[in-house]
Design goal:
The protein has one helix at residues 2-15, and strands spanning 20-22, 33-40, 48-53, 61-67, 73-77, 84-93, 96-103, 107-109. With 139 residues, it is mainly β. The chain has one domain (2-109): Immunoglobulin-like, CATH 2.60.40.10. Strands 3, 4, 6, 7 and 8 form a five-stranded antiparallel β-sheet that branches. Strand 6 (84-93) and strand 7 (96-103) form a beta hairpin. The chain is globular and about 50 Å long. Bound molecules: 2-acetamido-2-deoxy-beta-D-glucopyranose (2 copies). One 2-acetamido-2-deoxy-beta-D-glucopyranose binds at residues 46, 93, 95-96, 99.
Length: 139
Amino acid sequence: MFSALKLWVVMLVVSVAFAVDIQVPETPASGGMTTITWTTDPSFTQPFSIELVHPDFNNAFAIANNVKASLGTLNVSLPTVAPGDGYTLEFVNITNINQKYGTSPSFSIAAAPSTTASSTATSPGTSGTAPSVSAASAE
Ligand SMILES: *[C@@H]1O[C@H](CO)[C@@H](O)[C@H](O)[C@H]1NC(C)=O
Ligand SMILES: *[C@@H]1O[C@H](CO)[C@@H](O)[C@H](O)[C@H]1NC(C)=O
């Protein structure tokens, strides 16, 4: 009986869907800055976390925490990920990532811009794992 009540509560929470509409970020690149924009129902006032999700990940990347819904836009830096499509952004409960407020349409992430030109931390000698940026397919 207790678990039945719990299930009912879970179903109730899921059915109270918030209207969150997440736009696809513009020209997202691996490790680069991108602008995320969204619109929400005025009644949606919960802070949320933003996760970057791909079917190939075991976990989601948290890219922003405790975001105010009223902002409507946020500049974030993306993690270094394999370029490709099928990425989505999810807005989730800050303490329970399984509670999703909204999911963006899927989009693709480009390879990091000028990986060879930039003089960022390429430690000489000891780096064992080189990121395979060369595997990027055009479009
Ligand atoms: C976010 O980035 C865009 C484009 O670079 C810029 O125009 C905008 O002012 C930035 N917004 C904030 C809040 O920093
Ligand atoms: C977020 O999750 C926590 C823990 O499950 C819960 O107590 C809280 O009510 C949730 N927040 C919203 C806005 O649903």
